[in-house]
Amino acid sequence: YVLKDISFEVQPGETLAIVGSTGSGKSTIINILNRFYEIQKGEIQVDGQRIQDYELEAYRKRIAIVLQDVFLFSGSVLENITLRDERFSREQVIEAAKLIGAHEFIEKLPGGYDYEVMERGATLSMGQRQLISFVRALVFDPDILVLDEATSSIDPETESVIQYAIEKLIARRTSIIIAHRLSTIRHADNIMVLSKGQLQEFGPHEQLLQKEDGQYRKLYDMQFLQAAAEG
Questions:
Q1: N or C terminus: which one in the chain shows less Cβ crowding within 10 Å?
Q2: Cα–Cα distance, 169 to 134 (Å, whole number)
Q3: What is the pTM of this model?
């Protein structure tokens, strides 16, 4: 078993951040929440119902995942956002892009929303690809948003745009963020610290920082010192 005796609750509209080193179980939680594979024991409930009781397609329609490695396919920016779903109009896409601050950069592309994206988004920067995936998530308007926020390879200028986009995305919806940079999650309602598949700490940012020799405090101080050294 990867996860051992883990139990937690996220209220509707709350944001939960999950932190922990590689192999601590962060991705496993996301995988089982989406039912990419079934769990052997224990249960996950959404609105008081076991997730196995929902029809899989209907269940997954209510969840949007934005992964660290954004997948874009050959086609226009507009098609990459709507995934060729006829329900979404160009106006809805533009509205969503404006809301999270992606409209400006899309407009600057040759052809704007009709700009042809190469396979895997090869002609776009990492930050641009991530913004397109954020617009995609917002257009689909999920009840639960899962965000693997990897801002490690993004320049500081793009990072502030992405930070703004994240805040807009998580507003008023239940969100789970796998956090890499702790500075981006201080506003989360709760932070869950994992280590080797076990729950080490759980609580809001300020509360966890109070623990002198706590795991979160150590991670935070380490990143803070690293940022100061780089700055």
A1: C
A2: 7
A3: 0.87
